[in-house]
Amino acid sequence: MPRVSGRQTHRANAASANAEEYFRKNVANPFLDHLTEQMHTRFDREDRVGSAIFSLVPDNIIKMKGDLKPLVEKLMYWEADLPSPLSILAELKEWISHWERRPSQDHPDSLLSCLQHTDVDQFPNILRLLHIGCTLPVGSSDAERSFSAFRRIKGYLRSRMSHDRLAGLTLIHIHHGLDISVKEICQRYIRAHKRRMFQGCLLRQYFG
């Protein structure tokens, strides 16, 4: 029995012979198409080009030493920033030979650790690329999370909230997973505000 509704006008309603085919045509395939389109939109070529720098990590580049031309084409995205871009291919080969002569346990496993083992005279282009890779922003999730927190905290009923209180509530809301010691907070407050009344205060009795 075809699962087709004659009155349905606001959703996909492709004809199908059975339930499995209906949900594949009207639910699964449109969802996959939408997901693929969003992935291409969110991670286009200019956004993915930074991933090529991670190939400079010794263990990664040794595996791809057979054909370095695709990597060179991606790294040439920063051609204007490189001191001598024409020698990048020869420099990559020398970079591979440099780390192949060393035991694998001595290989750095991150871009930041590679900076400490890179000679500026021997590998000027690679050093510049490592600096770029270490300073590229990872994403905008932190900023977007803070905007969402502001919308939840500063509503119409809190429109006259002071800046310090808003900043404090926002930090507490964003970093709610942190383990905060109430005893340490009370001790800091007592030390910062020394008064006579704290001599007989319950806070000093329990947290002093």
What shape does the CA trace take? Answer: flat
Given the helix and strand composition, which structural class is it? mainly alpha
Q: In this structure, how is the largest beta sheet organized?
A: none
- Share of residues in helices: 40-55%
Low-confidence stretches: none
Computed CA radius of gyration, to the nearest angstrom: 29 Å
The end-to-end span amounts to: 78 Å
Helix segment count? 11
The fraction of residues in strands falls at: under 5%
Helix and strand sequence:
HHHHHHHHHHH
Mean pLDDT across all amino acids: 81
- The tally of beta strands, per DSSP, is 0
Describe the structure.
- Helix 8 crosses helix 9 (163-174).
- The protein is 54% helix and 0% strand.
- It has helices spanning 19-42, 45-48, 58-63, 69-75, 88-100, 111-115, 124-135, 141-153, 163-174, 182-192, 202-207.
- It is flat, with a radius of gyration of 29 Å.
- The longest helix has 24 residues, at 19-42.
- The chain starts with 18 loop residues before the first helix and ends with a helix.
Furnish the topology, listing elements before pairings:
Elements: H1 19-42, H2 45-48, H3 58-63, H4 69-75, H5 88-100, H6 111-115, H7 124-135, H8 141-153, H9 163-174, H10 182-192, H11 202-207
Quick structural overview:
The chain is mostly helical and 208 residues long. The protein has helices at residues 19-42, 45-48, 58-63, 69-75, 88-100, 111-115, 124-135, 141-153, 163-174, 182-192, 202-207.
